[in-house]
Amino acid sequence: MTPDRLPDSLRCAVLPLVLALGACASAPTGAPPSPTVPSAFRHTAGVEAAAPSPAQDWWQVFQDPVLDGIQAQAAGGNTSLQAAAARLSRARALVRTAQAQRAPQVAVRAGVDRQGGPLVNAAGGAGTLLTTLADLSWEADLFGRLQQGVDAAALDAQSREALLREARLLVQANVAQTYFELRALDAERALVDAAANAWRETVAITGQRLRTGSVAELEVVRAQAELAAIEAEGQALQRRRAQLEHALALLAGVPASNFELPPQDLRAPLPPIPAGVPASVLTRRPDILASQRAVQAAQARAGLARTAWFPSLTLTASGGSASSDLGQLLQASTRAWSLAALVGGVLFDGGRREAGIQVAEADLEEAAAGYREQILTALREVEDQLASVQLLAAQSRNAATAVDLGRRASVLAESRYRSGLASQLDVLDARRTELRNQRDALQVRSAQYQATVRLIRALGGGWEVAANR
After folding, report:
1. Which of 70, 136, 384, 441 is the 20 to 30 Å CA partner of 310?
2. Farthest-apart Cα atoms in the chain, separation
3. All residues at 6 or more sequence positions from 416 whose CB lies less than 8 Å from its CB, including other chains
4. Residue 174's domain spans which residues?
């Protein structure tokens, strides 16, 4: 029943109060404040102008089918994603709960009442009374209290949806980073194994020369010590690889005992980063969107807290039958009905409503501060990774030069050693330097993969080139 259907006496009593308080109900509106975002990032000069298609899954730019398969497993089996999906389902259920508050509530009752005793007999009511009743109640949303509750719950659900996308992006990035770190260890293990094989050959040759008296036992011991040290490094790399393989299994949502990746070289191409990535791409970061929705939900709840000062209007209707005879229970003579309108409000609560408003406003301030911090953090993360990509590219070029020079030094040292112009220590130092330079170069390349993945995640899952470029 709406206010215009009320009896005249009730309408005259209720509507003036409604009109007097209606103008007082308000809720904070508008977009949450945010720090100034630059038009472009600082560390984008000098990077190549190319980009992956925004329509494809971002990790496919690495063109690695094994990585694609692990990502597919993680999408369906990762437990963190399943928990985030459950939180989203709960938030959506709360939206339906809030929406149900605005709908009429209908209840049906049936009862049997047996009465007796001197007092009841004197009143003429002794016996059995059968009743069937239907009750209807509806709260008029005069000041938008119920609607603001629905709006806040809907914004919470949108925030949870964005957090689910953020969790999905985080899992995808962790899978890619762990995978590339594992492949870098495979490549490093191949270098160490090759060096160990070379030293095994050296130990065998030096042992033969010792038996012929061409060299001293010291040279054999040095070669054996170098071989043992390199084999120990290879075992340490294998132990680290096993841990990364188990971490990938956890991310994919499968038992570590059933997950195995055969060794493979680090062959995926590094995607070029587009020049002049606009800072506006941060708007698609799901964590920023979630923070924005959290601020808007806090705004709605601040308005909801203010409606506690206003009265509520509840309309009720009841109808049914009552009779002492079951056969007459549904006859017209036993039927009864009632209509009522109830306006209620608290006059004194010891400051509870004012405290509730202060709590809601403090929550709003906290959410707004978190939103601003989220944007600043996103800007920092992107700038960090853009700078890393640039500096690692320069470091990779220097590392490649060091590898070439180390390889050349080893060749020269071996030649001089065979000619009797250099000692075995010179050969040892040259080989150690060559292997160290090769491993350093490989670690720099691994860091480039890590920085690229972190950059893609910081940009919200990829990048887009501006339309005018």
Report:
1. 136
2. 133
3. 422, 426
4. 38-102+142-182+236-310+352-458
Q: Residue 161 has which token pair?
A: 């949806």
Choose the weakest-confidence range: 66-75, 317-326, 413-422. 317-326
Residue 17 pLDDT greater than 60, yes or no: no
Sign of the Cα pseudo-torsion (113, 118, 119, 121, in order): positive
CA quadruple 215, 217, 223, 226: dihedral sign: negative
Residue 51 has pLDDT above 50, yes or no: no
> Which residue from 455, 397, 406 is spatially nearest to 431, judged by alpha carbons?
406
Residue 26: inside a domain, yes or no?
A: no
CA distance 321 to 110: 10
Tell me, yes or no, whether 247 lies in a domain: yes
Residue range 290-305: mean pLDDT, rounded:
91
How far is it, in rounded angstroms, from Cα 348 to Cα 53?
Answer: 62
Helix (H, G, I), strand (E, B) or coil at 337: strand
Q: Which residues contact 167 (CB under 8 A, 6 or more apart)?
A: 80, 81, 84
Amino acid found at 441: A
User: What count of other Cβ atoms lies within 10 Å of the Cβ of residue 301?
Assistant: 26
Residue 138, classed as helix, strand or coil, is strand
CATH code, domain carrying 173:
1.20.1600.10
Contact, 137 vs 105, CB < 8 A?
Answer: yes
Count up the domains in the chain and report the number.
Answer: 1
Choose among 279, 54, 84: nearest CA to 170. 84
Placement of tokens 């000619």 in the chain: 419
> What whole-number distance in Å separates Cα of residue 107 and Cα of residue 132?
11
**Burial of residue 414, with CB atoms counted within 10 A of its CB: 0-12 exposed, 13-18 middle, 19 or more buried:** middle
Tokens 């985030």 appear where?
Answer: 84
Q: How many Å apart are CA 14 and CA 343, to the nearest integer?
A: 7
If one compares 53 and 445, the residue with the highest pLDDT of the two is: 445
